[in-house]
Write a structure and sequence with these properties.
Elements (H helix, E strand, L loop, with lengths): L7 H24 L6 H14 L16 E5 L2 E3 L13 E10 L2 E10 L5 H20 L7 H13 L4 E2 L5 E3 L6 E5 L16 E4 L2 E3 L5 E3 L6 E3 L5 E3 L2 E5 L5 E3 L7 H5 L10
The structure holds magnesium ion (2 copies).
Length: 269
Amino acid sequence: MAIQIKTLDQLKVMRRAGLVVAQIHIAIREAIKPGMTTDALDVIAAAVIKRGGATSNFLNYHGFPATICVSINDEIVHGIPGPKIINDGDIVSVDCGAIVDGWHGDAAFSIGVGTISAEDQKLMDVCEESMWHGIAAGKNGAKLSDIGYAIEQYTNSQGKYGILQEYGGHGIGTEMHQEPHVLNFGKAGNGPQIVPGFALAIEPMITRGSARTKVLADDWTVVSADKSRGAHFEHTYCIAPDGKPFVLTSIDGGRADLARFKVEISDLL
Ligand code: MG
Ligand code: MG
């Protein structure tokens, strides 16, 4: 399937979906604390989606039974909310999305709950910053693989981390998952050229150990094969018609984070 090129009006609807996703993140970051169940986070997300006049793109996705994915410690992505208790010192990764008027947003973050070790904090910081490196590299006129190259180079410059290979980012628009698949590693200069109207979800997933993963018996939860802890960050961004990027799932459009890379965001959204 061809890459879906969005008009400015379509990107504006995607911005509305992205802001609902951003509000879910804010609500969960505020609420999360030791002793909570992962189900309680799901309830919060569902309420924000309802209040925002949106619908969930996770619920019933290939049978997924909840509004968000919650993955703890060696679980990296696709964990199912339930009665599991969040403990002090856990890394909790939350992934969620929303649909507004048929257009999708998708974003994820990891957070340390209570007292977190320096090594775990660095894991999360490296993962988040690698995502920004990827978004900054995925500028108008770049090649798609420049994104994964930037993510991998930055991650490897920070220490020994496993970058998941079987999972990656994706195009997003009238479906949550569209062409192209976006690798979090690889050589620069390959693949389609990034042009105005592209919307991509960039989502590095790394561990403190092996990049190898297993899927648990629930058929969803992805864990590291060596039980090392993981982190996951994701934003949906686009290239606006003026050729500048805009991060649709970030409250400030990515202005502050991309300024570190001397990348200016679009004023059109
Ligand atoms: Mg996601
Ligand atoms: Mg995604």
